[in-house]
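User:
Hi there, any thoughts?
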Amino acid sequence: DLWVTPDALPSDPSASSLWGALGPANGAPYGIDAIGAWPTTRGAGITVAVIDTGILAHPDLSGQTVPGYDFIWDTDMSNDGDGRDADPSDPGDWVSAADAAGALAGCSVGNSSWHGTHVAGTIAAAAGNGVGIFGAAPDAQIQPVRVLGKCGGYLSDISDAIIWAAGGPVSGVPANQTPAGVLNLSLGGMSSCPT
């Protein structure tokens, strides 16, 4: 085993706050010790589909992505004015009081989570670029797949997104030219998934 010390941290200014990625070998109370795995792999050649809220442009994710897709068909939830399309950008999942009193009745009022961008950074933010943080697998590629909008998302959109991200065909959606080898779904619900 290689011995890794905190001085091996990349030059990213917020790297020391990544206790979940650092692990005990790097002075954190717990975590995965991503840096300790880097002599074996940094994720090169792996595409990870982040099936979530989409992605925002960020310097730590510049050059870290492959084309994704927006699977949200419901325009009230999509917050981007249209249904399914090839733009997985995250316009925000905030819910206003007007939304909660109208088309999204029953949803909680709240600010945008930007969750998909957060997850993408945790996985593959560039390391050593002097910006923000680093990801656990900084040489991996992220495929943003948008399924969550205002108030969440539908299992039908999520199911189609899983099939597409893995390289399977989905009616009405162009074939995925860069299928993912790993799918990340940081999602939760109030019941078990149906068949």
The first helix runs from residue 19 to 22.
